[in-house]
Amino acid sequence: MAPPALKLSEDEIDDLLYFSRTGDKDELTTMLSSLAEREKVSPAEILAGAKDEGKSTCLHMATGNGHAEIVSLILSHLASRPKEESKAFLDTPNEFGNTGMHWAALGGHLEVVKLLVQAGAAPALANDKNYVPLDLASFGEKFDVVDYFLKEAGMLEDDNAEGGLDGAVANVEIEDEQEEIVEESATASAQK
């Protein structure tokens, strides 16, 4: 999303991240507007360009701290962007592969997790340790978030196949293992 000509100072990036982390909506809004006007870009492009040295964004900071109002503000700026750009920003990983969804799940911020899911963020991207947000919520004993993810997965399952997994495997027949061994032995003997 961020154009190559975007010139944000380290202090400006730090301020944007700080306002997102602390939930200071007024300061974040003012700064986004000011920088967008100066750079002649949208606030969404400013948000996309504001990353710390660990590649964490304003979205990471807001989600990790459970600031639903800031997350909603960020999402409102993304709404004017092409869907692919918005999705890419929502699923932007930091240097450890964690997205805003990972941070929200780890912190047990259910309202934020729901906002992200509704906005189209991927709920099952793995980080560099191969953990998905559900894993992080489980490790942190954030069971309301775990339950939400499992419920959402069940609804997706139901949408994908009538009856979910039960419907998908209803007509699958499993041969008796003993029968299979006998058939393999007969085949091997015939080949000798």
From TrEMBL:
InterPro entries: Ankyrin_rpt, Ankyrin_rpt-contain_sf. Keywords: ANK repeat, Repeat. ANK repeats lie at residues 96-128. It holds the Pfam family Ank_2. GO terms for molecular function: ubiquitin-protein transferase activity. GO terms for biological process: protein K6-linked ubiquitination. This is Ankyrin repeat-containing domain protein. The lineage of its organism: Eukaryota, Fungi, Dikarya, Ascomycota, Pezizomycotina.
